[in-house]
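Note to self: keep these together.
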Amino acid sequence: MSQHLVYVSRNNQPCEILIGWDKPLQLFFLDVKVLTPRKTCVEDPFNYVYLYSSLEDPNSNSPFNNPGMDAAQALEYYTDRLKQLDITLPDYILNQLLEDKKNNAGNSTMIHEQSSDGQWKTTCESDDP
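Structure:
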């Protein structure tokens, strides 16, 4: 599966967005978590509070929930869910997600971080050969 980890600030709290293409299931997925620092755990320094998970959304594009939804509709649905959380992904990430679907990407992880000046930095952690 392709994974795009996007780090943003929402209401002055750090958030992690995991969005990507699931190659075996042939669908997009989305998780949004608020990250709260822990003071006592070095291995996992954050507590996670889920704001949204496509696995728990009965209207998502899960084959169990909405088998008729195509990928473009699903991506639009997820961008709408993000907008409800006051989060907007930059177009270049959405375009990469569409490319992931087109190329049936698997085993890739991209990390997207926004700097204080609003510029985005992307790092490729692994790649599908």
